[in-house]
Amino acid sequence: MSRLQLADSGLTLSGGDYTIVGVVAVVAIIALAIAFVLRKEVLAAGQGTPKMQDIAKAVQEGAAAYLNRQFRTLAIFVVIVFVLLFFLPADSIGERIGRSVFFIIGAVFSAAIGYLGMWLSTRANLRVAAAANESEGGREKAMRVAFRTGGVVGMSTVGLGLLGASLVVLSFAGQAPKVLEGFGFGAALLAMFMRVGGGIFTKAADVGADLVGKVEQNIPEDDPRNAATIADNVGDNVGDCAGMAADLFESYSVTLVAALILGSVAFGSQGLLFPLIVPAIGVLTAVIGVYITKARPGENGLSAINRSFYISAVISAVLCTIAAFAYLPSTFAKLNHGISDGGNPALIAAVAVIIGIVLAAIILWLTGYFTGTEHKPVKTVGETSLTGAATVILSGISVGFESAVYTAIVIGAAVYGAFLLSGSVAVALFAVALAGTGLLTTVGVIVAMDTFGPVSDNAQGIAEMSGEVSEDGAKILTELDAVGNTTKAITKGIAIATAVLAATALFGSYVNGAGLDVVASNVNAAFAVFTPSTLVGLIIGAAVVFMFSGLAINAVTRAAGAIVFEVRRQFRDNPGIMDGTVRPEYGKVVDICTRDSLRELATPGLLAILAPIAVGFGLGVGPLAGYLAGAIATGTLMAVFLANSGGAWDNAKKLVEDGNHGGKGSDAHAATVIGDTVGDPFKDTAGPAINPLMKVMNLVSVLIAPAIVALAAPDAPQAIRIVISIAAVVVIIAAVVVSKRRSTSIADSPAETVANGVG
Amino acid sequence: MSRLQLADSGLTLSGGDYTIVGVVAVVAIIALAIAFVLRKEVLAAGQGTPKMQDIAKAVQEGAAAYLNRQFRTLAIFVVIVFVLLFFLPADSIGERIGRSVFFIIGAVFSAAIGYLGMWLSTRANLRVAAAANESEGGREKAMRVAFRTGGVVGMSTVGLGLLGASLVVLSFAGQAPKVLEGFGFGAALLAMFMRVGGGIFTKAADVGADLVGKVEQNIPEDDPRNAATIADNVGDNVGDCAGMAADLFESYSVTLVAALILGSVAFGSQGLLFPLIVPAIGVLTAVIGVYITKARPGENGLSAINRSFYISAVISAVLCTIAAFAYLPSTFAKLNHGISDGGNPALIAAVAVIIGIVLAAIILWLTGYFTGTEHKPVKTVGETSLTGAATVILSGISVGFESAVYTAIVIGAAVYGAFLLSGSVAVALFAVALAGTGLLTTVGVIVAMDTFGPVSDNAQGIAEMSGEVSEDGAKILTELDAVGNTTKAITKGIAIATAVLAATALFGSYVNGAGLDVVASNVNAAFAVFTPSTLVGLIIGAAVVFMFSGLAINAVTRAAGAIVFEVRRQFRDNPGIMDGTVRPEYGKVVDICTRDSLRELATPGLLAILAPIAVGFGLGVGPLAGYLAGAIATGTLMAVFLANSGGAWDNAKKLVEDGNHGGKGSDAHAATVIGDTVGDPFKDTAGPAINPLMKVMNLVSVLIAPAIVALAAPDAPQAIRIVISIAAVVVIIAAVVVSKRRSTSIADSPAETVANGVG
Fold first, then answer.
1. What's the chief localization of this chain (chains A, B) (predicted)?
2. Could you give the CA distance from residue A60 to residue A580 in angstroms, rounded to a whole number?
3. Any B CB within 8 A of A523 CB
């Protein structure tokens, strides 16, 4: 078993190799061009009445203002990390500069894709509402615009991800791995902040709007008299659209980065290029997927989307297999690298990619089963509404736990299956990463599916607020919204799977980079892995996931309290609002959401970056490996649990609203509304943020591992190590204390007592 | 670094050694004698009115009937395991027989202590109610009887645990470690079943009684017209008393077992004896603790209990330090064993024990902070009741997450602190185990504190049902009940800490036993720990904790549904019940609870035993190590999360009932009632069962490790390994499917629609 050499592999690319990377870069640019074409198509659609346009404009301005302010805040942060990255060990000055520069590029790409998602969806929502309002073929047109919007974001995500990675390989060749770490870290870090910030914004606005509107004043959702209603719609765009797009871009990039890092070790230069070929094929099939999605007459929108997913997955599998056998040799002896393995590289690569594609399909099905209204789990949660909110909560938690277990085991089986493909650890790790790239081939369609959700949701909001959409049009939008709910849950499942595969591959590269793979002369380091100190690291890793989730949920409760206070104030100070004679100050609520989200994202963000630093420098590389393993295992379960119990509650509410168990207004409905409100921060704030969290923590560990090893050497000044660790702990504690000192809860601003339900 | 030799250490005990063990055995018997004396005192107290005695008798009969039936069911199981244990590898026939026989003894002791806890508390509850009813000094008398009852159970727990361990050492000397594995496994296995079965019984009865009584019929808790009310009181005794007593006995035994297993390796024969001396000192201080507990006039009961805890903890620390320096030498050279370490054995041992004692004190404080009514967390949960049930649930979950993180980090710090005491891994592991024995010195008082809870709860039930306790008496009982709520939460925190320390020590011995500590010649095994396959094991380990929790919560919901159905039937078929002219058929409900609890405990129980078998034989010893590590980390967090969020909800309800935020009957009250109902299966079924779960899984792994290693050898028939693994998986799946097929939820038997709250 050879020690993986992750630093400069001394690899040089041939002219033919450069041609291939060049072709991949061109494919990436084609993807961006297609996105541009689709974008024109979306923008060309009709924009409805002036009142609808007015509302959309308010949402556009609010969302843009939030993201601009968020980017300004994060810019300072990005610059600090840029400088810090410079001081971490590297093999050459070129690598050092490349790593920092591509960190910025990764962050900028991530931000750009998020901004694009927000920009387009705040324009598409209006057009979907207008299309649904058309008397002839409204349903098909609305669905088409919504899905095309998703197509733009999807093609841009894969295009930018592939472009970034191929640029790194073109510019740095053998030094690419270290530079790619910077690129992936930039993408993951920004995505995490956008997920957390956007997630807090969207749910604070949603919960706050519902608490005052639905519960206290008894006015419907999206009623224009509610001052928080624009903020609620802005939230959908900055959270579900911008945050999600950045998140999936990050998943795409980091998985690709992991594959590229491990590929050259396992397969030589062909291992560096094959992981680029697979997603390039994915671009092609994504285009097919986006263009063939068309609901047959009377068919459910979800069936149409699922069909194109499965078709493009099958095409991907076939093409990737052909590519593997065409490009890779049938024995390892023919690869230009140091690993000897009895297997067939082409076969290993093909099977690994197929494992990833099959995994995506299983998760699609599994998530649909646990969160769809037509299956037993959600039906059971719906039934328990007859015995009240407590049983709704308990059954939803059970569904979440159970689905998390099955999803985790399926992901684990995929990892294990890929790992079993080779007896050589280097090749096996690469196979895991390749399974990740297999998953990537589906990302284009997945992003398109996901964007569908918030766009439909917002279209419904605009229709409701303007009051200018016909009853038929409203019905169409309700149907699309329900489809969007399920696709959103599916995306989260896929995102978590990419997170585990990428994290596992990165974990492998961390372990090897940190010298934990133990050569015979180094029994002490080996032992470190089994000792209680590693277990302590593991417990801390698992604890950080709990802490992060708790902080995110708490932040939503706190921010929602501020919204409640402001909306109540407006109703009180300005009775004309309730009469409909005075327009509420929407902007004020958007401002509060913006301010609070940006303030609240600091603590979980710092925790994610500093906790691995504290553990790594304080306890050593062995416990840091334990830390990562603990975070991956608990993170996977927690992320799926939060996403799926939230999805199940949401759809159980829909079941009741569709007339089951007493329908709208019944006690059963009130019980499911409570379940849904509990699920809101679960599924849209804490749950999805765990995905980038896992990757940020892994990449921080990979980046600092050489520094830890250097400082742990007997002749190094031990004090520095301890000082760094203590400083990190102090900053974390300070951040937690500061966020606790803030106005603590909704209860700090109760103007009146509020009843049970919160919508 | 020497390879730990856990099999027959070839250790022989000297005559002086035997004298010491003999003295320890005598101390154990003295503890039992004191328990007997205290028991007489409790039974001598006044028994109240004939009506009160009638009710108590019904509870006594129901509880005895349940436990008898449970023991009959489990007996078959115990016999099967007894036989299976015989076939696992052992070094000699004596060890083989000893392991199986002491497995039975461990199981019988565990059952006996549980039975005793139930037997006495079903008699003490009546006497506490009667004492509270006395006009003169009722409060002091009631508290005294309740705490003396706890003393009986506490002294019996430590007495039997110490007796069992010292008997093994007396009989098997150097072969003791393997035999102790059997003893610990028996204790842990039975405790797990009693925790799960009792936990399901008590919460099914509680939730079922409240759903029909409080919510549908609007009659108070413990109203004699409710057919489930006797079952509810039976549940307190079989769950909170019997289950908890068995659980703490198991914690005591397994921690002791871990210390004894590791002690001889680290310190030679003195290492085998010192872990017996520490808890023997604990017996002495527990006696002091029990006898000095007396509330000063006007003082809160909890302060009195806390005071005796702290006093006895300080005495323990002092005496243990003296014992360490008196008994252990100051250099390792003077110990009769093979380890060379520059440290001072006496100092290491003393500090390790003190770490354990300090850990107990910190957890006592931490749990009190997060679940006590006078601190910020519970107050915040109470305040969020103003904005409805959803915010109550969210804030309770946040409190649970947060407290889990701090508790896990404190426990992790204790493990790390103990581990740092020596550079030698063998000594460091022993130090972790010794910290566990330090915790044990507090167990006597802790059990006494815990038993206090259900006894007071039941006394209140008897007072309410009989209607023959004065208003002053009722007030006293309410106060005692509230104190009991907090002491119950504290016990769970301490139990989880012992679980982690014991599991870490056992994990260490597993890793070494399985040959994973890697000698230079065995790099493959070393690598196994870092590979994705270990990570997959880790994910599965974490997943099993989620699965187990979900199964337990689901079982309660299912069983509660059956109770609801039966109570409704009785009200419907027999209108005289509501008038109070006809006595409801209490026995029927007890029977249903008994049947369902015994049926429901099979699936989680099988999961706990078979999952490590499936992973170990299927994936190998490396992934099994990962499995255990994942289960320990996630289990710790999950157990504390479930216990403390449940505790916080319970006390938030009490806060509102005490007149805050609108008081009883307000919307805020209804919101906290929902929180409390969600918390019921969290804190009393799923949460506490994770503690024995962790130890059962660890002991199964330790026991099967040699068999896995033997079957993984190249010349062994690989098919056997795979067949065993697949068989285990098949049984688990079958068990899960069978339990899913059962009447699925409360909603299957709704006679009428029920409103939001469930008490």
1. membrane
2. 23
3. yes
User: Which residue pairs, CB below 8 angstroms and at least 24 apart, start in A215-220?
Assistant: A215/A754, A215/A755, A215/A757, A215/A758, A215/A759, A215/B388, A216/A568, A216/A752, A216/A754, A217/A571, A217/A578, A220/A464
In B45-137, which residue ranges form alpha helices assigned H by DSSP? 50-87, 93-132
> For position B4, what pLDDT does the model report?
39
Q: Which residues 104-163 on chain A approach chain B with CB closer than 8 angstroms?
A: none
Residue B330 CA to residue B309 CA, distance in Å, equals 31
| Tokens 């320096």, residue located | B325
Alpha carbon of A533 to those of A463, A626, B33, B505: distances in Å? 58, 9, 41, 12
Q: Which residue has the higher pLDDT, A108 or B139?
A: A108
Burial-class residue B296 by CB neighbours within 10 Å (0-12, 13-18, 19+): exposed
CA distance B584 to B593: 16
| Count of Cβ atoms closer than 10 Å to residue B112 Cβ | 17
Structure tokens at B599: 């049926």
Facing B633 at nearest CB: one of A538, A557, A754: A538
Q: Which A residues in the span 587-626 are in contact with B, Cβ-Cβ below 8 Å?
A: 619, 625-626
Q: Does B211 touch chain A (CB under 8 A)?
A: yes
- pTM exceeds 0.95 for this model: no
d(CA B167, CA B161): 10
Q: State the complex-level ipTM.
A: 0.89
Residue bearing tokens 């006594």: B60
Specify whether the CB–CB gap between A490 and A313 falls below 8 A.
Answer: no
- d(CA A393, nearest CA chain B) in Å: 7
3-state helix, strand, coil in chain B (%, to 5): 85, 0, 15
pLDDT, mean over chain B: 85
Q: Report the C-alpha gap between A481 and A458 in whole angstroms.
A: 9
Backbone angles phi, psi at B225, to 5 degrees: -75, -15
Per the structure block, which two tokens stand in for B48? Answer: 């109240």
| Helix (H/G/I), strand (E/B), else coil: B3 | coil
Mean of the pLDDT values across residues B34-43?
93
pLDDT, average across residues B505-526: 51
Length of chain A in terms of residues written: 759
Instruction: Report the distance separating Cα B67 and Cα B59, nearest Å.
Output: 12
**C-beta atoms surrounding B93 within 10 Å:** 8
Q: Are A439 and A356 in contact (CB under 8 A)?
A: yes
Closest by Cα among B166, B174, B162, B171 to B13: B174
Alpha-carbon distances, residue B422 vs B254, B320, B346, B416 (angstroms): 23, 19, 12, 11
Tell me which residue in B633, B674, B681 faces A542 most closely, judged by beta carbons: B633
Task: Please give the full DSSP string across A363-395, using - where no structure is assigned.
Answer: HHHHHHHHH-TTSHHHHHHHHHGGG-HHHHHHH
What are B269-314's pLDDT values in tens digits?
A: 788 889 999 999 999 998 888 888 777 777 777 788 888 889 999 9
